[in-house]
Fold each of these.
Amino acid sequence: MGLTTDVLVVGGGPAGLAAAIAARKRGFSVVVVDGAKPPIDKACGEGLLPGTLAALRELGIYIQAGDGESFQRIRFIDGSISATANFPGDAGIGVRRTVLHQKMAARAVECGVELLWNAPVTSVTQEGAIAGGKSVRAKWVVGADGIHSRVRHWSGLHAGLNGERRFAQRRISRDSAMNVDEALREFPKLADNLRDVKLSSVQRGAVTATCRLDRVCRENIALVGDASGSVDAITGEGLGLSFRQALALADALEAGDLEKYQSAHRRLARRPLLMSRLLLLLDGCAPLRRRVLQSLAKDPDLFTGLLTAHLQDTSLRLLAEVGARLAWQLVTA
Ligand SMILES: Cc1cc2nc3c(=O)[nH]c(=O)nc-3n(C[C@H](O)[C@H](O)[C@H](O)COP(=O)(O)OP(=O)(O)OC[C@H]3O[C@@H](n4cnc5c(N)ncnc54)[C@H](O)[C@@H]3O)c2cc1C
């Protein structure tokens, strides 16, 4: 006989574990199934922005500076141009993906989530799914199976998928064959800083994409994290966005109305998607990128304003002010 649960989460990566913890905290019984076994590693920048750390705390997961390396600022470098801005509030933390996964899985167990590893899902129906060859019956199915989500296909939610992909080797490029050592030649100062550093894992590759879906839920199935559309890794927002989606999904499950999640998801993705598209525009247009970086280097307050707009849910007024200031700098540069 198979398992029966209120919520079945397909995918035990960061988004799936966050969705499971949030739903369990609302009193649902929750089973997470994943085809891999922990701790699950993945090519990821591993930067947790201040808002991401706040969302983790809401889930009861506390990442301390000692778990990794804290960082207080962002720097963009293009040849001889370098622009730096400090975070407006708390620092971020860079933490090994395996450490984050271990902490999240431990918190899920502490909350009473049932975790089934080595259990790949091969089909999803309205009654639940087949995981590791066994049937799991569920009232709600959450697809948290990453950027190549099969749940998205099985549920027909992939129809409105549109976006742009890039390739990453723990560094991001449009070239799928790029190698980290070759890429480092473009950044001699960084290469110098890394000269005596001991490698902490093998080189890993991944796809990153900026894409959105027309819909992220249908009947009793909802998508969360990269399965539900994603922002390019350059934003450093993928994890934070996944965690905020997980919290919004739990609200909708509690209300018994996935349409609430649909609208929250659209609202949450708006700002990171805008930033992602702006950064990719700069990536693809070198003359514009240099002008913008020169403006930011000349006016660090402007860069701080942009960073604040990226990191915090800011007012339209601040966005308009920062936009106008950047436009003025570009015209007068
Ligand atoms: C190069 C790179 C750098 C990045 N840097 C950052 C950064 O610095 N900061 C940040 O916040 N974000 C960053 N991101 C984004 C971040 O890594 C993703 O947004 C995040 O991993 C999404 O988590 P997820 O749980 O949705 O998907 P995943 O982490 O991909 O997890 C999906 C899980 O589903 C499981 N699965 C898949 N199919 C099945 C199946 N059929 N049955 C059962 N299980 C299945 C997989 O085993 C996996 O465990 C980066 C991404 C890349 C590619």
Note: Residues 10-16, 33-36, 40, 42-47, 52, 120-121, 144-146, 150, 168, 172, 206, 208, 225-227, 230, 233, 236-240, 242 surround flavin-adenine dinucleotide (CB under 6 Å).
Amino acid sequence: MPESAKKPFFDLDFDSLSSEIAEAGLPKFRAKQVWEAVYEKKIFDFAKMSSLPAALRERLKQRYAISAAEPVGGKISADETGKRLFELSGGGFVECVILEAPDDESGGIRKTLCVSTQLGCAQGCKFCASTARGFKRNLSSPEIVSQLLPFAEGGRFAFENIVVMGMGEPLANFDNVMKALHIINARFGFGAQRITLSTCGIADKISELASSGFPYRLAVSLHGATNEARDKIMPVNRRFPLEKLIPAVRELAKASGRMVTLEYILIDKINDSFKDADELAKIALSLRAHVNLIPYNTVEGLPWRRPSPQRRKAFFNALKGKNVSCTLRREKGSDIEAACGQLALVTERAKSAENGGEFRP
Ligand code: SF4
């Protein structure tokens, strides 16, 4: 059976797997063995599950695909930001990047895996490569979970945190993303406090999370501290202006008891004035939120530029001067197109050129 016709393994809950095993005429404990092989030992190839009888390995292999997103390449930048590109069984590419940052607690390096949730994106943020070819489709929950698999080594994941911040807006693919996070948290045992969902500001869904007991961390891509600034670069602000977004974020922070992060990409002469810093400080202090300042990564074909190092530092100091909890991210991965959605876009362009200008995934 071709891989694309097989059922995704991650769609199976334990009861369904047990039924599959019973149907094969095998004892119940075999289901537990398969479950533990995938979720505890992190073996993602049925052929390598040596504790199973050969006939069961073959049966599972014929019927199920563990990975729904196959790595097709990857780049390691000079500063060791690793990025992998995946080809989805249904066609199209998504990317996944490991970001490295100093860990204040351990004094070592903290690795964070950034995963994608949609093919393209409909939100239209003006500075973002993911939106350049529009929205194609939502990723299924197995396609989201599969992005973790190539980063498992010796029964462990080679990263400490996950941030749902790659291509796509996670809250526009709500059900699949929640299901994927549940698999990662409840089945793989990856702690909820180590998972962050990042949204461009879909306020009604943030309120839904607040009332449903959202256990993970939330980051909001603010990128502008006034409606005027956000309107210039983020069309979502017309649907959910700050007077809707900020109360929803406050509601979630209160319900979860977790500190929210405000992501803020610093773009030259768009959102980097002292007045912007003042407005951002007011919002951050009112939410008791942490601000993560990210120098913009230039995207080919887009007009935006990152501010000078002096201007970035001045913006950071202005926030610090107002006692805002704040970090200024060191530039990582700019040599491997690490801005959101960039690697997939470059690959799509290369495919497009191969296909005589028409993009066919
Ligand atoms: S920044 Fe995020 S929400 Fe905005 S277009 Fe890019 S992927 Fe979509």
Note: The pocket of iron/sulfur cluster is lined by residues 121, 123-125, 128, 130-131, 167-169, 200, 340-341 (CB under 6 Å).
